[in-house]
Amino acid sequence: MKVRISSRHFAADQKLKDYIEKKLAKLGKFFDRITNVEVNLALENSGQVRDKVVEIRVNVPGKLIVHKDVAKKFEPAFDKSLKGLKVQLKRYKGKKSA
């Protein structure tokens, strides 16, 4: 599973990248047919407190699964997005095995 982390409008520090890679490693154990994962981190200038945007794009055979979330900090936004992604992967996995 290849992982690509990109940031827009800021430079992501190594601590944040390590946090994301550690969590995504568990995703590979959860579903082994993931080919690559792309994580996009962005700062939105919306004037609101919740301006940290995380979008996770997962390629599995025959489908692209995407989940996006917004929060005050990147870690909670990533965690919520990953949780939603796991739900979508379970649904995909269920359809493939049925």
How is this structure best described in words?
- The protein is α+β, with helices and mostly antiparallel strands and 98 residues long.
- The protein has a single domain, classed as Double Stranded RNA Binding Domain, CATH 3.30.160.100.
- Helices cover 42% and strands 34% of the residues.
- It has helices at residues 14-30, 74-97, and strands spanning 2-8, 36-43, 52-60, 63-71.
- Strand 1, helix 1 and strand 2 (36-43) form a beta-alpha-beta unit.
- Helix 1 (14-30) packs parallel to helix 2 (74-97).
CATH superfamily: Ribosome hibernation promotion factor-like
Order of helices and strands: EHEEEH
Strand proportion, as a percent range, falls in 25-35%
Number of domains: 1
Q: How far is the first residue's CA from the last residue's CA?
A: 24 Å
CATH class: Alpha Beta
Arithmetic mean of pLDDT: 90
Shape, per Cα inertia axes: globular
Topology:
Layout: E1 2-8, H1 14-30, E2 36-43, E3 52-60, E4 63-71, H2 74-97
Parallel strand pairs: 1-2
Antiparallel strand pairs: 2-3, 3-4
Helix pairs in contact: 1-2
